[in-house]
Amino acid sequence: MDEPHERTRDVSREALADVATRAARAGGDYLADEFRTGHVDAEYGADDVKAVADREAESRVLDVVRGAFPDHALHGEESGRVGESRYEWVVDPLDGTNNFASGLPAFATAVAVLDDGDPVVSAIYEPLPDTLYVARDGVGATVNGQQLETGSDVALDNGTVSFVVGLPAIRDEELAKRAEAIETALGDHCKRVVETWSPCVDWGLVARGALEGIVCFYPDVYEQHAGELLAREAGVVSTSREGVYVGASDEKTRDDLLAVVDDV
């Protein structure tokens, strides 16, 4: 008997990107409306926040995907994995829940499409500034429809670097200690280290060249797939190892950041 993914019809990258864009906007538009009410229904933990808005936004994202591709697999941060298919949609409905719950206007909805496990399309939507990033494997990346190419003339010691720490590291005592050490070391080599608690916002800034680099330590897959593809298609130079991703607009900055991480 054929495997399930072998019965899934081929879908063009353009068609996948169109649905990913509509899905990300569906989630993001809902979040913007909820954010402006000033009321957040949420459960607060020591290292995370789970808001009703996460589930509601994810429901809206998945409704769009199901309507277009009912035979595709889904992997939502809130609902988990559903189905088996060559194509898998990985969704972070509210990247930046802590910010959302605290009234900080820095959050996004992220959607990535995997084809046999490889990210081929991603859409990241920041609803408050109405900023939409779309990336297609081998085609490039755009921001609000304009071609996107990374690049920064700022030297690392005068620059800003994003540091992203995933929940696997936060919840492991030894990894958490190493994360703190990496952050301190990064601070010795650049002007500022930022932790926005919304990695997809940072990915967009790196892709635009507004940040000089990004270091991810045991990142969560829900935003990593979308962000890493966006960065790659925008021209970010990167290195990935187990538990670590380092990206920058040029090889020297990437290598310098990687050396900092390796020395910790």
UniProtKB/TrEMBL annotation:
Residues annotated as binding Mg(2+) = 77, 92, 94-95
Instruction: Return the SUPFAM superfamilies for the record.
Output: Carbohydrate phosphatase (SSF56655)
* Molecular function, one GO term: metal ion binding
Q: Which cofactor does it need?
A: Mg(2+)
Family matches, as Gene3D superfamilies: 3.40.190.80, Fructose-1,6-Bisphosphatase, subunit A, domain 1 (3.30.540.10)
The reactions it catalyses are: beta-D-fructose 1,6-bisphosphate + H2O = beta-D-fructose 6-phosphate + phosphate
What top-level class of enzyme does the UniProt entry assign? hydrolase
What are the alphabetically sorted keywords of the record?
Answer: Carbohydrate metabolism, Hydrolase, Magnesium, Metal-binding
What the entry lists under InterPro entries is as follows: Inositol_monoP_metal-BS, Inositol_monophosphatase-like
This enzyme's EC code(s): 3.1.3.11
What sections of the protein cross the membrane? none
- Name the GO terms of the biological process aspect: inositol metabolic process; signal transduction
Regarding protein family, the annotation reads: Belongs to the inositol monophosphatase superfamily. FBPase class 4 family.
Name by which UniProt lists this protein: fructose-bisphosphatase
Organism in which the protein naturally occurs: Halogranum salarium B-1
